[in-house]
TrEMBL record:
Taxonomic placement: Bacteria, Pseudomonadati, Pseudomonadota, Betaproteobacteria, Burkholderiales
Listed name of the protein: Uncharacterized protein
Native source species: Variovorax rhizosphaerae
Length: 247
């Protein structure tokens, strides 16, 4: 009998960034440096992964920034020219801008670049400036319990009251989005859910409320397709206050 050869898991990382954003404490130089650190952490932990960086800032990348990032990744997308991104950047609330642009650009990528994910087994979504740390192991995702599932770091109670989020009091939770992933078979589901998430956020804003990506992920991702992994193996600094966190 011939030897059985197990194929390594094929992975893609989609990294969201906003290099020239004016929100938060970090300068474009710091954001670029930290995002390069994000990319390096992927290369260290998953050397053969495809890496696609989506820059979602209304102020596009400078040529030197684009050249540097392009040299380190599989594909770089500068979404500053999207009409929807420019429309969102006219909103005065920076939290709204951050959440809506990220959802819009991720949704656009999943629709327009599906061919880049052909043959991939698992897709990871990682926020730029965060990094995979020593607790992350790609081999862990071969566990059968993660097949056909989305993997998040955990479910957390909302810091907002239900009248703000529009959620039922008994279901006012969030799923952390710094690092999460999904089995590639769920691409149509994730794409559809992100369309719902965008519609819901616009609805809440028009009603005078607020909601963000984490709450929307919990509200719309099918519960039967969610698995938890704690710790998930990601670290970094929060943009508003530079506080170091790890999940």
């Amino acid at each position: 009998m011939g030897a059985i050869i197990l194929r390594a898991m094929r992975t893609a990382f989609i990294v969201s960034s906003a290099i020239n954003s004016s929100a938060g404490m970090f300068s474009p130089e710091e954001r670029l440096r930290d995002t390069l650190g994000t990319i390096d952490s992927i290369r260290q932990r998953v050397p053969d992964a495809a890496i696609h960086v989506l820059d979602m800032c209304g102020d596009g990348l400078q040529p030197a920034q684009a050249r540097l990032l392009s040299s380190q990744v599989t594909r770089l997308f500068d979404y500053s020219g999207l009409h929807d991104v420019q429309a969102i950047y006219k909103v005065p609330n920076l939290d709204v801008v951050k959440n809506l642009t990220e959802m819009t650009c991720f949704h656009h990528f999943l629709h327009s670049q599906e061919a880049l994910l052909a043959g991939v087994d698992r897709v990871f979504k990682l926020s730029g400036r965060y990094r995979l740390d020593e607790r992350f192991s790609i081999g862990d995702y071969d566990d059968p319990r993660y097949r056909g599932q989305m993997v998040f770091s955990g479910r957390f109670a909302s810091q907002f009251t239900p009248d703000v989020t529009g959620n039922d009091a008994a279901d006012n939770f969030q799923l952390m989005s710094r690092l999460w992933s999904f089995d590639a078979c769920l691409l149509p589901t994730v794409r559809s859910v992100y369309g719902q998430m965008i519609e819901r956020m616009v609805e809440r804003l028009n009603a005078g409320g607020y909601i963000d990506i984490e709450h929307l992920l919990h509200r719309y991702m099918p519960r039967s397709r969610i698995a938890m992994r704690t710790p998930i193996g990601v670290s970094g600094r929060l943009a508003p206050n530079a506080r170091e966190i790890s999940d």
